[in-house]
Amino acid sequence: MAKVVENSARAAEELLVATGLEKRFGDTYAVRGIDLRVRAGEVLGFLGPNGAGKSTSMRMVTGFLEPTAGAISLCGINLLTHPIEAKRTIGYLPEGAPAYPEMTVEEFLTFVAEARGYARRDARDRVERVIERVHLQGVRRKSFETLSKGYKRRTGLAQALMHDPRVLILDEPTDGLDPNQKHEVRTLIRELGRDRAVVLSTHILEEVEAVCTRAIIINQGTVVFDGTPTEMESKAPANITKNRMDHVFRMLTTGEGERRATRRTKGSTR
Question: What sign for the dihedral angle of Cα 166, 172, 177, 178?
Fold first, then answer.
């Protein structure tokens, strides 16, 4: 009985569950049978080289792209059969942080709040909170098209946080930010990850070490690693003393480490 209760509690913690996720474009597979399970309190780093299927996977779990096969649930709600209810549970920062260019930051965030159904006073309060939380006070009355890339990303993050979602999916959230801004956003992501599920797509392995509790690497549409950042780093050979996670990433996505090991083995037998 205790084991059944324990398993039930563990399942209840899983806020994002995707099983057997596939996406095919014609005869070409972009994603081949990926499983993703992210619990409350986890910040998952989602990694892979360009063309590995990261963005396709993220578009599927956010409902922007229909999978060829597989099942997706968000906070226990089936995304494919109840898309509107499921999407209410997520905040999504897509690549490019799209917005209406002529709107000011404040106008855009107000539009997002009202589009989510908040009454005027509640919408205003929520806009004030996210502006303060993401440090947009200095640009709140500037039009989106005049913002730097970093402030565009911050505005995109602010709209993703508007409804205080249980699941937060971020595609390159620190892209274009300077070192101080990166530190602020990473601190915010760590705070947000304490009681919700966060999926963070990034090319920056330093970010995985700084923010993530777990990492998944995909290559050619399949998962090639799933574990903690420490477990990932431990896969590097003992003689690699610098940039160990970079080495493991290359080893898992290009076979570079295996080729080096093979050359060393051949050299030792001559």
Answer: positive
CA dist 16 → 28, 56, 129, 134, 242 (Å)? 26, 16, 26, 25, 34
Domain assignment of residue 220, given as a range: 1-89+195-227
Q: How many domains does the chain have?
A: 2
Q: How long is the chain? A: 270
* Residue 13 and residue 75 share a domain: yes
DSSP-assigned letter for residue 62: T
pLDDT tens sequence across 68-95: 999 999 999 999 999 999 999 999 998 8
Answer whether 211's CB lies under 8 Å from 184's CB: no
Q: What pTM, to 2 d.p., does this model score?
A: 0.85
Q: Is the dihedral of CA 186, 214, 204, 158 positive or negative?
A: negative
What stretches of the chain show up as alpha helix (H) in DSSP?
2-13, 54-61, 83-87, 105-115, 120-133, 149-161, 179-192, 205-211, 229-234, 244-254, 256-268
Same domain, 258 and 239: yes
CATH number at residue 72: 3.40.50.300
